[in-house]
Amino acid sequence: MGIKPYEKDKPFVYDLNWDEWQSWVKENGESAFRAGQIFDWLYIKRVFSFDEMSNLPKALRDKLKDQFEFVTLSEITKYQSQDGTVKFLFELEDKNAIETVVMKHNYGNSICVTTQVGCRVGCTFCASTLGGLKRDLRPGEIVAQVVKAQKLLDETGERISSIVIMGIGEPFENYEATMNFLRVMIHPKGLNIGQRHITVSTSGIVPNIYKFADENLQVNLAISIHAPNDALRSKLMPVNRRFPFVDLIEACKYYIAKTGRRITFEYALMGEVNDQPEHAEELALVLKDMPLSHVNLIPVNFVAERDFKRTPRDDIFTFQRILEKGKINATIRREQGSDIAAACGQLRAKHMESSK
């Protein structure tokens, strides 16, 4: 549903999940245990060349060199916030740029990864859509963001403990690559990130919400909703014209019934647009039949190219109280990295403008 990924003569070494590596070693006449060794070099020792895989026979290393490549993520720039948030702008092999953010919490380090170069969803308040969608990322290009960040954290003895797939792009428009990424991340022989410590965020690609519900995963699901009704949501999120609000809510109910897991509804508050008491009351009515739901209220980030203003602090608390009065669990997102343009797409947009 997105734009096909970068065409290559060879796959990236991170493109393959555990089952695919097992198939590869078998098809290449190697012993089954070699898959575990390769996985160990990639995700435990985190080497960036085949020559470093010292316990593999030279013939096997040569075979890997002949058939695979490592992902090239060249650091264009890196910003560190006063709160410890680090934002990277990486250049890919085809010269496109993507963003990755590492956030420090009192419970550990989380990473926000990107799944596409740009975005075509078109949310009117988001910098990620500026310039449209260039292409999907390959699975290995998503994986490489985590490996690169973890390699840097290795220097201080820290680790990535949670992942949010909320960076640039729509993960459910690059669905198979996102699922392959998840399979690599959660495998016990790899980075072994707990499924419940991973969150996938979608703008509401309805068919793939049903598909995701049937994946039998414990990964968290977040839905960017940003409005309590069809008309307002279509103005803010053009994707709503493809997948109407009523169909999205039905898909969410299916997900909850099928998985028994809650959904987090992301709601970006925009001054005098979607932040009035009547909006909160309407949203509470929409969600009242979904007890396993939670609303994450997000003060909208300032984006120079967009014309939205932040909701006053007192109005944010009023919105939260109305939802809670309607028995809807609601929290206000803690801001991180606001001093380094850490909102999705802002750094890339600046880079694109300066590169013209």
Automatic annotation (TrEMBL):
Pfam families per the record? Radical_SAM, RlmN_N
Ranges that cross the membrane: none
Binding residues annotated for S-adenosyl-L-methionine, in chain numbering: G169, E170, S201, S224, I225, H226, N301
Under Enzyme Commission nomenclature, its number is 2.1.1.192
Co-factor binding comment: Binds 1 [4Fe-4S] cluster. The cluster is coordinated with 3 cysteines and an exchangeable S-adenosyl-L-methionine.
Q: Which catalytic reaction applies to this protein?
A: adenosine(37) in tRNA + 2 reduced [2Fe-2S]-[ferredoxin] + 2 S-adenosyl-L-methionine = 2-methyladenosine(37) in tRNA + 5'-deoxyadenosine + L-methionine + 2 oxidized [2Fe-2S]-[ferredoxin] + S-adenosyl-L-homocysteine; adenosine(2503) in 23S rRNA + 2 reduced [2Fe-2S]-[ferredoxin] + 2 S-adenosyl-L-methionine = 2-methyladenosine(2503) in 23S rRNA + 5'-deoxyadenosine + L-methionine + 2 oxidized [2Fe-2S]-[ferredoxin] + S-adenosyl-L-homocysteine
Q: Which cofactor does it need?
A: [4Fe-4S] cluster
In Gene Ontology terms, what is a biological process of this protein?
tRNA methylation
UniProt keyword annotations, A-Z: 4Fe-4S, Cytoplasm, Disulfide bond, Iron, Iron-sulfur, Metal-binding, Methyltransferase, rRNA processing, S-adenosyl-L-methionine, Transferase, tRNA processing
Q: Which GO terms describe its cellular component?
A: cytoplasm
Catalytic site: E99 (proton acceptor), C344 (s-methylcysteine intermediate)
Using the record's annotation, list all stretches that form the Radical SAM core domain.
105-338
Q: Which GO terms describe its molecular function?
A: 4 iron, 4 sulfur cluster binding; metal ion binding; rRNA (adenine(2503)-C2-)-methyltransferase activity; rRNA binding; tRNA (adenine(37)-C2)-methyltransferase activity; tRNA binding
Q: Does the keyword tRNA processing apply?
A: yes
The compartments listed are:
Cytoplasm
Provide the binding site for [4Fe-4S] cluster: C119, C123, C126
Q: Which PANTHER family match?
A: 23S RRNA METHYLTRANSFERASE, RADICAL SAM CORE DOMAIN-CONTAINING PROTEIN
UniProt lists the family membership as follows: Belongs to the radical SAM superfamily. RlmN family.
Its biological purpose is as follows:
Specifically methylates position 2 of adenine 2503 in 23S rRNA and position 2 of adenine 37 in tRNAs.
Additional observations: Reaction proceeds by a ping-pong mechanism involving intermediate methylation of a conserved cysteine residue.
Q: What is this protein called?
A: Probable dual-specificity RNA methyltransferase RlmN
Which organism's genome codes for this protein?
Paenibacillus pectinilyticus
